[in-house]
Amino acid sequence: MRDVVVVGASIAGVTAASALRAEGYRGRLTVLSEESRPPYSRVPLSKGVLGGTQAPETTALPALPDDVELRLGSRATALHTERHLVELEDGDPVPYDGLVIATGSRARRLGAPGQGGELVVRTLEDAEAIASRVPGARTALVVGGGFLGMEVASTLNRHGLAVTVVDRDPPLRRLVGSWLADLVVARARAEGITFASAPDGVALVGDPVRGAAVAGGGELHADIVVSAVGDLPNVEWLQSSGLTVAGGLVVDASCRVAQDVVAAGDVTVVEVSPGVFRREPHWTSAVVQARAAALTLLHGAGEPYQPDHYFWTEQFGLDLKMAGHLPFTGAPRVSAGDPASGSALMAWFEGERCVGAVAMNHRMPVVRLKAMARAA
Ligand SMILES: Cc1cc2nc3c(=O)[nH]c(=O)nc-3n(C[C@H](O)[C@H](O)[C@H](O)COP(=O)(O)OP(=O)(O)OC[C@H]3O[C@@H](n4cnc5c(N)ncnc54)[C@H](O)[C@@H]3O)c2cc1C
Questions:
Q1: 336 CA from centroid of ligand 1 (Å)
Q2: Confidence band for 281, pLDDT divided at 50, 70 and 90
Q3: Which is the most buried residue in 171, 201, 208, 280, by most CB within 10 A?
Q4: Cβ(94)–Cβ(85) below 8 Å
Q5: From the CB of 345, is ligand 1 less than 6 Å away?
Q6: Is the pTM above the cut of 0.85?
Q7: Atom 52 of ligand 1, residue of closest alpha carbon
Q8: Rounded to the nearest whole angstrom, what is the distance from the C-alpha of residue 78 to the centroid of ligand 1?
């Protein structure tokens, strides 16, 4: 293989490119990014960058090796697997011998097409746009009580805004289970967050967006309205490629999607049982999968990708590291600290089998936390 192309230059694409070099690949390596900024981490966007306490430059990912060509502003628009070509929006088609697809996902929006003013947090520009409005705002409405919505609420609240979170489901419950969700929500309430329930869903009102309409004809208004209602894998450019898409690009156990083509990160789904596809749109999954994808591209069969099942979030003064199969059912066994005080090490069991572990403001090393959750 003499010519490898990586499409997407976020954590999955950058990790795959670095892993290819680390594994001894010495041929041409080109990374295509539709973004105009050098690769950066999205993790601080909903935390320090949104609140204006972390400078955008500090989000930069470690530089790619010198002999990797990074082409910014290069958006892939189509893939021809038989001809081994990536088409670009602007520029000549790029040939490849091996291809890594790492085009991630984008924020889902609630607003009607063309409706202005809906704020989301996916890119550095998104976070900067919100941060620039914080000083002049008094109230914020966050639509969506998932990890991202709760982090955004926490950050805006810490910067003095009165924040309401509205969701059709109880915040975090579907993601982490009732016990842990209730604990975090109680903490959020104590910090002044208001929660609104909209069992029939939420629609944005106004153009530009001024607020959200909830069940029963009620409307919530705020100076800033942020949608945090999930993400959509960037697969449209693959439409005519013949690759299988089922809520994301389907990868096999070795991250392969076709001859000479692998994929990693938020763009992918894995078939966990016949016809059932699962996404793991988290940082460590993207890293682990990107390494596995690079090995597969170089060595053929590669090593089977082992999902990491690890995630962390920071909100309302809680640093939560979670390993295992979310959501967790019932109450945990507490092996250190006290959850009510905001610092604890907890584990969830099915019978005598540990199925999940959470370190909350606790110094347990991540590898040990993961090992705990894998304990038979
Ligand atoms: C605000 C925020 C906070 C987060 N916080 C956490 C956290 O605390 N913990 C955690 O575990 N995870 C967190 N995550 C999730 C984590 O950041 C993602 O899982 C990770 O970014 C996925 O990386 P990726 O490389 O697969 O995709 P992405 O980061 O989505 O990057 C894909 C890249 O491909 C580019 N691209 C897309 N289409 C094309 C195309 N056609 N041509 C060229 N380039 C293209 C995109 O512009 C983008 O640069 C957070 C995510 C966000 C948005």
A1: 34
A2: very high
A3: 171
A4: yes
A5: no
A6: yes
A7: 42
A8: 20
pLDDT in tens, 177-224: 999 999 999 999 999 999 999 999 999 998 888 888 887 778 999 999
Instruction: Kindly give the pairing relationship between strand 162-167 and strand 310-315.
Output: unpaired
CB-ligand 1 contact for 256 (6 Å cutoff): no
pLDDT of amino acid 335? 93
Question: What is the distance in A from the centroid of ligand 1 to the CA of 36?
Answer: 15
| Domains of the chain and any CATH numbers | 3-106+231-299 (3.50.50.60), 124-227 (3.50.50.60), 317-374 (no CATH)
Q: Which atom of ligand 1 is nearest to the CA of 8?
A: 34
Q: What residue's CA is closest to ligand 1, atom 53?
A: 122
CA of 102 to the centre of ligand 1 (A): 9
Q: What is the mean pLDDT of residues 165-171?
A: 95
Q: What is the pLDDT of residue 303?
A: 67
In ligand 1, the atom with minimum distance to the C-alpha of 121 is 1
Is the separation of the CB atoms in 319 and 312 below 8 Å? yes
With a cut of 60, say whether residue 376 has pLDDT above it. Answer: no
